[in-house]
Amino acid sequence: MRFISTRGGEFDISSSKAIINGISSDGGLYVPEEFPNLYEKIKNKKSLKYEEISFEIIKEFFTDFTFEEIKFAVDKAYKNRFKVIEENGFLELYHGPTAAFKDAALLFLPQIMKLAKEKENISDEIIILAATSGDTGKAALEGFCDVDGFKVLVYYPNDGVSPVQKMQMLTQKGANVKVVGIKGNFDEAQSGVKEIFGDNEFKKRMLRKGVRISSANSINIGRLIPQIIYYYYGYFQLVNKQKIKLGDKINVSVPTGNFGNILAAYYAKEMGLPIAKFICASNENKVLSDFFNEGIYDKRRELILTESPSMDILVSSNLERLLFEASGRDSKETKKLMDELKHKGVYSISKKSKEFLKNFYGNYANTKEVYKAIKDLYEKEGYLIDTHTAVAYVVLKKYIKSTGDTTPYLISSTASPYKFPRSITNALEIDTNEDDDFEVIKRLNKFCGINIPTNLKNLDKKKVLHNNICSVNDMRQVLEEFVGENIW
Predict the structure, then answer these.
(1) I need a surface site. Which of 106, 215, 352, 470 has the fewest CB within 10 A?
(2) Does the predicted TM-score (pTM) go above 0.90?
(3) Are 290 and 256 in contact (CB under 8 A)?
(4) Is residue 319 located within the same domain as residue 413?
(5) Of 300, 324, 299, the residue nearest 26 (C-alpha)
């Protein structure tokens, strides 16, 4: 398997090189030259464990690596560290070290990156840059903490993550990690990271210091491919529980910000998984909802801070990969759209591309709808979901109501409710106004009796180790200082 850039500047790239580079030198994203037909190969192995399905999928894409190397990386990432549970159509993806679905990929990425570094004979230190809207940062820090040959620098919007998410990052131990809050939003953090990647002169200067930069965001193909796994695993869970028969189609509803999670579902379908409809669920930052309904992507709007902060995004990076497919893999067209977005803030897709996207349904949920969904589901089913998952649940219900489509479904459940305790208690109408968020966690636990994830217990008692704040314009300077610090 080889990889190419969505913008046409690179082709015939090995998987190890694509993983190390993170982003193409032309600013595009790496995509596989083709999609292997995996479903037919493994459909009769529906009882495979999570790490076994992981092996079957990853070996199809990352062919530079031996089967033994992939098995080692998969086992080290997932065995006794991460599990996926299907419950009432909800695919719970948050049973990992950081209580969010990002663990599904960021437990694996450090393992495969270490191997890729060896394959490419790289002796340089690699700095992993990550912009986070809340969950990627902690998962990247956890995954790469004290991994030999790697350093991690995470930028997060200082006022754009939940107190629990922030505390998870600020208390991160490790000699090779740094966390910096920016005076701006996630889009500005992500744009700053992309600008660093796009500055080839800057990267050459870093190389002269013996330093390379790579990405832990889902723009990195090494982050994206592992997210395909849980859709196969979830589908087989439905089969094994006799909720569907092998070969039956399902719909998937995904709370969507940067578009990586739902793109992984699309890739799963391209590999043969019977998915009928992709339900793209947005919060009030409904740029994607508008896009799928109108064929126009327009980021020229104010970012709204919502109760689902990990989705407070106006520039969805991974949509570029879908646009590449929708245009018939036309790299010139893809580059044109991305240039228009950068310079004008808006682009329109062709009729051909819009027709290609007919299996995508976009809609959004506001805070009132999210709160009602959380409360109703808990009172009727005794089942508690977080705010992001509630967005996907609300939008799925809207889709069913408008279409009458009763196809079985999976809802991507992306985080533990305890990561957003105040929002959940507000939804359940539990009075917590005078408590801080960590007291609210205890109050919520007392109310519902659901176990608090181990990694969130006593989080407020941990020592804050990072208190760095910078402006968006100073992000590069922070990186240069990090390179120059005596931690090398």
Answers:
(1) 352
(2) yes
(3) no
(4) yes
(5) 324
